[in-house]
Q: What sequence folds into this?
């Protein structure tokens, strides 16, 4: 079953590449560098999806004490951190030719970086608590705190960046973009989501096997 | 404006490397669990039941975790 | 409801008594705050203009660094004196312990922050007279947020190895939005602007306070289970 998802993910990724390079047009203002967006934006969407799953799984674990929920939270956090890292890396590579600098504290990169260190801390906590039941409980609480922090991060960073200077930074989003670009974004988002599903399923399965072996 | 294909390639290349590395991490971990009789090689995240990396004793002496007696300050 | 408040108060009162007798935490934190002042001055250099620009940030850095030290020890006194098990066995709602500890930490942090503000005013020659009420509002809002999450995480990390490392590593990322808000608001307040001009930051801080305390109260039971 997992292999089917994996195969689908691969196919979707291929489709996404075709869309990103073959179908989508060369962007007028930025040139072909803009194609990095087809990696960067779906990546951050999937990261948020992953952390939403962590929230739901964490609450479920605390309320019902289902080991499966704990494993799902762990797996989803790990994959979420992976995609968050990917978002930051691609954002930075995009930034160099576009804004002339490898790093900039713009709203999205800053928010995503805070997210990255928050959930990296989550993984660190999991690694440092030996007792499995306690580790699951603590991680669940942290997962909940981190998730509720996300909107606070958003608003604070956005106001921090835009309230005292005009938003001269490009904010790509489906808003006023031509349909083809939106379509390419969505295809890549679907591909990344399938990849996320595949990774999480495999990871959760691994966690279950490790738990049974111990 | 220059097309900067180098950066595009770098981004996609890096993405591929990151995703593939994670996939390989999962695949390798899976292999060590489906063939537990295999001699275990030290690697990232590979479990080593023969050489526990935890220095503190694993078995809890009671339900409640307590600090080691030697490290506790004497009661006053 | 009343027993909840009473139990929280008992925890707070106990901690205050312990502190009053030993005074160790407060003294150490006061000294630490003073040292931070020196550190900041040396790090930023003698240029008054530059110092003035970074002052709000340095002030909150001082609060956070002192807070990390002070909050990290929240449950150490119980662990060192073998009262931890008693805490875990306490009947009823453990959230009362959280509220009591939170109140204690809040008081501690506010005292240290007051000292830091006075020291800052003295060393960097600030005229704080008119802005003090507004500054106090910002400081209280920010400190509640810091203490709320800090108390929860202190309980969590109390039993983990390398507690001193994990506590700041977990707390600081979560506090990032609060830091952004407080520094911006403090900046405005120190320039003499009215609180209304930073209303959005204050609302964010208030929202953060509500969220963090609510999550703390709701999840503390789960943290103290083991």
A:
């Amino acid at each position: 079953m997992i292999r089917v998802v994996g195969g689908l993910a691969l196919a979707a990724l291929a489709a996404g590449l075709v869309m990103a390079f073959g179908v989508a047009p060369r962007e007028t203002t930025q040139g072909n560098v803009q194609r990095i967006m087809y990696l960067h934006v779906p990546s951050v969407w999937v990261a948020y999806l992953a952390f939403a799953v962590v929230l739901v799984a964490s609450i479920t674990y605390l309320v019902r004490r289902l080991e499966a929920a704990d494993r799902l939270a762990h797996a989803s956090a790990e994959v979420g951190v992976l995609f968050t890292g990917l978002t930051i890396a691609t954002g930075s590579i995009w930034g160099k030719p576009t804004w002339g600098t490898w790093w900039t504290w713009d709203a999205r990169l800053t928010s995503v970086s805070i997210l990255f260190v928050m959930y990296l801390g989550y993984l660190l906590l999991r690694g440092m608590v030996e007792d499995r039941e306690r580790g699951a409980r603590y991680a669940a609480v942290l997962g909940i705190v981190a998730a509720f922090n996300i909107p606070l991060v958003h608003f604070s960073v956005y106001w921090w960046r835009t309230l005292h200077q005009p938003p001269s930074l490009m904010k790509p989003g489906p808003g006023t973009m031509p349909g083809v670009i939106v379509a390419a974004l969505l295809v890549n988002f679907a591909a990344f989501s399938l990849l996320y599903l595949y990774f999480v399923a495999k990871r959760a399965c691994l966690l279950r096997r490790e738990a049974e072996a111990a | 404006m220059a097309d900067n294909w180098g950066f595009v390639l770098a981004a996609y290349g890096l993405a591929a490397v990151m995703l593939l590395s994670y996939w390989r991490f999962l695949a390798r971990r899976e292999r060590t669990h489906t063939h537990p009789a295999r001699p275990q090689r030290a690697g990232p995240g590979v479990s080593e039941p023969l050489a526990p990396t935890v220095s503190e004793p694993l078995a809890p002496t009671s339900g409640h975790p307590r600090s080691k007696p030697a490290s506790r300050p004497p009661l006053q | 409801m009343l027993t909840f408040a009473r139990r929280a108060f008992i925890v707070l009162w106990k901690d205050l008594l312990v502190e009053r007798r030993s005074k160790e935490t407060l003294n150490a934190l006061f000294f630490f705050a003073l040292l931070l002042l020196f550190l900041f001055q040396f790090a930023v250099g003698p240029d008054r203009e530059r110092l003035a620009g970074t002052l709000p940030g340095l002030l909150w850095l001082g609060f956070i660094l002192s807070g990390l030290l002070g909050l990290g020890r929240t449950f150490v006194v119980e662990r060192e004196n073998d009262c931890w098990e008693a805490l875990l066995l306490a009947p009823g709602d453990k959230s009362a312990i959280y509220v009591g500890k939170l109140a204690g930490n809040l008081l501690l942090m506010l005292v240290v922050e007051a000292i830091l503000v006075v020291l800052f005013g003295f060393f960097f020659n600030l005229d704080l007279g008119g802005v003090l009420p507004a500054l106090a509002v910002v400081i209280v809002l920010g400190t509640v947020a810091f203490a709320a999450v800090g108390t929860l995480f202190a309980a969590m990390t109390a039993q983990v190895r390398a507690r001193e490392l994990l506590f700041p590593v977990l707390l600081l990322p979560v506090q990032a939005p609060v830091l952004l808000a407080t520094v911006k608001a403090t900046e405005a307040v120190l320039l003499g602007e009215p609180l209304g001009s930073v209303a959005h930051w204050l609302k964010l801080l208030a929202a953060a306070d509500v969220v963090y305390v609510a999550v703390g109260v709701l999840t503390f039971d789960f943290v103290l289970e083991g």
Notes: The mean pLDDT of chain C is 88.
